[in-house]
Fold this protein.
Amino acid sequence: MYLSDMKKIIATFLLLAMLFNQHNSYAAGGFCTMLDKICQQKHVDADALTDFFQKVGVNVYKAADISIYANVFKWLYTPYRLGGKSERGIDCSNYVFKLMNDCSDSYATSKQLADMTEYVDREELKEGDLLFFNVNGGGISHVGVYLQNGKFTHSSSSKGVTISSLEEPYWNTRYCRAGRITVNK
């Protein structure tokens, strides 16, 4: 009986040691390595990226898709330019296309983008969902990409590529709807 108890204890110890090693290897080689790898591919400083997003209230460590954040960081402060598609200047809908697909050079208006999405309740927003606004009184005329914690990124005519909050009065009153791009659309 003593020998079987010892076998159980040893088996339990080995199982715990194996689980501990898996946990440590994930922490050591998991998110942080992925963040560094993506930032390296996008030519972005990982420490600067995490510091910036922390300052604006977005936790990249909770990100479902860290590459979105690396792309946002790469485009930050790019000036707004109607019809622009480059680092010299970019408008809101082209910015959304660039975030969704680095090599995309397609163009659609904010309204056309809205027509390509499946409606999403504001309370059900997920990273990458598109947010549509009426900024000129004629219906949907601005688009941004939801990040988390009520924050979204967009190319603003006054600030260029930036991060704003849905709770800011300007954006809250102009919010129209949100949409999720679906494969079947």
